[in-house]
Amino acid sequence: MLAAEEDMKTAAAAGEVSVDRRPKLALCVLCGLPAAGKSTFARALALRLRQERGWVVGVLSYDDVLPPALPDDAGTLPRPSQWKMFRQELLKHLECFLVAIISGGQMSAPPNRTETMWEDFITCLKKQDLIFSAAHEAQPCHLLAKTAVSRRLFLVLDDNFYYQSMRYEVYQLARKYSLGFCQLFLDCPLETCLLRNGQRPQPLPNETIRLMESKIEKPNGEKNAWEHNSLVIQSSSCSSEASLEVTDLLLTALENPIKCVEDNTEQKETDRIICSTNILHKADETLRRTISQTMKEAKDEKIPLDNLKRLAEDLNKLKADFLEDLRQGNRKYLCFQQTTNLSDIISSFCDERDTVVQKYFSKQH
């Protein structure tokens, strides 16, 4: 601990940490379609910032840590709700690292973790010389590398982040600890992504990328104030002007951390109840229409009457679960905080609906 404190004092004298001796730390969300070139861009950006600015840059690629979004040997895909839980867990792992940096202490494993995910996360940090393990400890613990607490540190999160609700979770984490936050959207033509995807050892289905392209929500600072610190980059652009824009964006985020404002708890709860009541009504109406359309399609497929009855029961139970989840604060299916976004709720419901419906359609073949 004493060594970490000495490193912090040295960093403060060099202007690498803030006036309260907290490390200057920022999170950068790097988003875009699969095969848009995000990982290549992230590696090049990290190398350039290390060489030109002397910053410490860590790249957290979700593909390297999350379980693969591909069918297993039995042809089974992760359920959408399970996939969201994995993403939530990864943010908890990241929070452990952030807390260790801010406090200057060691990083311990969180409880109730998925062991393989935690190990892959640790491996990712070790490879970039951000942490090292204490070999002499009876229980494994991980110590921060000297550079992680003595220089400006940027963490680049590399993933599709195609819904703004996914990115908002990272923003909330930055706000919780008063960190810098920014977003880079790598814009790449769909056909280019499909071509690159086809050249990968384990390509995604083209339908998945096309569907994602139709749903992707680019950062919109005019619509969402929290997204104002964002930049859209053409994937083919590697000009010095583009590099300067990116560096300026990152520097602005680093020097202007988000202030964690203490809200009026009573007013906040009142606003939440009003908002929840309105969105519950809208969600209930829309989900009813969605189920009605799904049942019509099932009848057109000549599904037996007994199966139709069970399908209707399953879908109505799923709707009831979703609405209760919405009332209780999004704990099971809706792993995001912005419940005012009806499209996110419907999209999550449809993901779960498709899983239910598939069981009945498969019985036909």
Automatic annotation (TrEMBL):
Q: Does the keyword Cell cycle apply?
A: no
So which domain of life are we looking at? Eukaryota
The record's annotation in Gene3D superfamilies points to: P-loop containing nucleotide triphosphate hydrolases
Coiled-coil residue windows? none
Q: Entry's InterPro entries?
A: KTI12/PSTK, L-seryl-tRNA_Sec_kinase_euk, P-loop_NTPase, Ser-tRNA(Sec)_kinase
* Pfam families, A to Z: KTI12
The answer, when asked if Nucleotide-binding is one of the entry's keywords, is yes
Q: Per UniProt, which keywords does this protein have?
A: ATP-binding, Nucleotide-binding
Q: What molecular functions are annotated in GO for this chain?
A: ATP binding; kinase activity; tRNA binding
Query: This protein is called what?
Result: Phosphoseryl-tRNA kinase
